[in-house]
């Protein structure tokens, strides 16, 4: 695991919205915990939340919380829970909230203390979707000094999206620790060829391929990932 830098956590991004970042992140958390050490997830900014008796809650953030050990407080996992299911910039404006980097760093620091530095931070949408006005995902990843894991939603067009995202990650001064292929739909006749092209084209190693298996428990798929 230390070979890819996961002893110090990672920042997870995707080729686009719907690539399966959260599902892959929960599987990755379970894979990180295979050695018996703690690892926790964080969704710094989440739009599309539902009201509960405990406050606003986001489905993706709850999934990361459930895959974490120890189980952190929700407010640390998801410091900014925005009700409207749209881009964070729009959702924050509608909620009258200003997303600020110091708040995110403080929550990360608290989580890191609980997990021995092993925090998986899941971004929003694709890499170039801002977290807030004037705050890019690259800004947060650099501030946290985290390597990036790219989740590739395996479907038509993924080669272009994956290559563009990898170039953007590197151009923003971040390190690509590897990528995870996620079968977001039933694989077609050229699935194996697509994977070969991705392995040849992307600058980081393939950490594994998650099958198209709706309803599968993330813990049961952790063995599909190899973290070095």
Automatic annotation (TrEMBL):
Q: Which residues bind Mg(2+)?
A: 22, 60, 122
- Return the EC number: 6.3.3.3
Q: Which top EC class applies here? A: ligase
Q: Mainly localized where? A: cytoplasm
Reaction catalysis annotation: (7R,8S)-7,8-diammoniononanoate + CO2 + ATP = (4R,5S)-dethiobiotin + ADP + phosphate + 3 H(+)
- From the Swiss-Prot or TrEMBL record, state where the protein is found: Cytoplasm
Q: Where does substrate bind?
A: 47
Family of this protein: Belongs to the dethiobiotin synthetase family.
Q: What does this protein do?
A: Catalyzes a mechanistically unusual reaction, the ATP-dependent insertion of CO2 between the N7 and N8 nitrogen atoms of 7,8-diaminopelargonic acid (DAPA, also called 7,8-diammoniononanoate) to form a ureido ring.
NCBIfam families given for it? bioD
Question: What protein name applies here?
Answer: ATP-dependent dethiobiotin synthetase BioD
Give the organism, scientific name: Arenimonas soli
């Amino acid at each position: 695991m230390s070979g890819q830098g996961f002893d110090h956590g990672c920042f997870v991004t995707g080729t686009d919205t719907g690539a399966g970042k959260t599902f892959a992140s929960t599987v990755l958390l379970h894979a990180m915990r295979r050695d018996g050490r703690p690892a926790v997830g964080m969704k710094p900014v989440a739009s599309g939340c539902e009201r509960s008796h405990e406050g606003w809650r986001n489905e993706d953030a709850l999934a990361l919380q459930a895959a974490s050990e120890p189980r952190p407080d929700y407010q640390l996992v998801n410091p900014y829970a925005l009700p409207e299911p749209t881009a964070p910039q729009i959702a924050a404006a509608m909620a009258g909230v200003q997303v600020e980097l110091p708040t995110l760093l403080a929550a990360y620091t608290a989580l890191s203390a609980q997990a021995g530095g092993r925090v998986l931070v899941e971004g929003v949408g694709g890499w170039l979707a801002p977290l807030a006005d004037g705050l890019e995902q690259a800004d947060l990843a650099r501030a946290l000094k985290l390597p990036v894991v790219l989740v590739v939603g395996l479907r038509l067009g993924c080669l272009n999206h994956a290559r563009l995202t990898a170039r953007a990650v590197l151009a923003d001064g971040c390190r690509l620790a590897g990528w995870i292929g996620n079968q977001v739909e039933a694989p077609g006749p050229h699935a194996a060829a697509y994977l070969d092209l991705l392995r040849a084209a992307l600058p980081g190693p393939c950490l594994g391929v998650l099958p198209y298996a709706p309803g599968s428990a993330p813990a049961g798929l952790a063995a599909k990932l190899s973290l070095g």
